[in-house]
Design goal:
The protein is mainly α and 250 residues long. It folds into 2 domains: 120 residues, Alpha Horseshoe (Serine Threonine Protein Phosphatase 5, Tetratricopeptide repeat), CATH 1.25.40; 77 residues, Serine Threonine Protein Phosphatase 5, Tetratricopeptide repeat. Helix content is 80%, strand content 0%. The protein is built from 12 helices and no strands. The two termini are 39 Å apart.
């Protein structure tokens, strides 16, 4: 939490010096939105993203790519709040902005398709979700290196859908490819590597392969303990996973 507190102090200090008429004001509001989203304070995040959007529309209405990106950010926050209808509305508006800007292969479109896929997966629209995760991944391949960690996020999403519909081998293929990318591109104690191990552990548990599930859960919790506070939910939840699987092996 310390790094977020420091960032907030910096942003507040800059905001005091920044006039609402300053052209950078919208981006400052956007930065606050990202900050509060990362802190899971979604109501405040929405407020700041909306301020950024209002400011941008008022001062630079022709910057459709930036405006579309803000709608996508707002949609992502609504997704975190499980408000799928509002998320979908924002994503559709973002899509319209990108189309009007002739930017259908812009890197931001990858984020948009990913958000749409998450919303569809949450609503059990698995075929549509798979298609949009793949669209996101295809755009990323045009703009990112083959081992960029952002690509791993889409591979995880695709793996999640395959796991849910019972296609476990396809799920495993995407989870392991994602893990390989993260190991190559992130520090060894990065929480995303732990999360990836946890996904593989969950898949093995679903397949009733208790030994492999336990192995990957232990890998996950080891990294979580090194990178997160011990009371953090990811740590305690993975410890529960280990206890649950261990009890199945007795």
């Amino acid at each position: 939490m310390g790094k977020y507190d420091s960032a907030e102090k910096i942003y507040i200090d800059v905001r005091k010096k920044c006039s609402p008429d300053d052209t950078s004001y919208a981006h400052l509001c956007y930065s606050f939105g990202v900050l509060y989203s990362n802190r899971k304070d979604f109501n405040r995040s929405l407020q700041w993203f909306q301020r950024a959007l209002d400011r941008k529309i008022r001062t630079e209405p022709s910057d459709l790519i930036y405006i579309g990106g803000l709608y996508c950010c707002i949609g992502n926050v609504y997704m975190e709040k499980n408000d799928f209808n509002e998320a979908t509305k924002c994503y559709n508006t973002a899509m319209d902005c990108y189309k009007r800007a002739n930017a259908t292969n812009h890197p931001f479109m990858a984020s948009l398709y990913h958000g749409i896929a998450r919303t569809q997966c949450a609503q059990k629209q698995y075929t549509n979700a798979l298609n949009n995760y793949q669209r996101s991944l295809d755009i990323q391949k045009q703009h990112l290196t083959s081992n960029h960690p952002d690509m791993a996020t889409n591979l995880i999403g695709i793996g999640d859908v395959y796991r849910i519909v019972g296609q476990y081998q396809l799920a495993m293929s995407h989870y392991t490819t994602s893990l390989e990318i993260r190991i190559k591109s992130l520090p060894p104690q990065h929480p995303d590597i732990a999360a990836n191990n946890k996904k593989i552990g969950l898949l093995y548990e679903t397949m009733k392969n208790w030994k492999e599930a336990l192995e990957y859960y232990k890998k996950a919790v080891t990294i979580y303990r090194q990178s997160l506070p011990l009371q953090q939910a990811s740590v305690t939840e993975t410890e529960k996973d280990i206890h649950r699987v261990s009890s199945m092996m007795k």
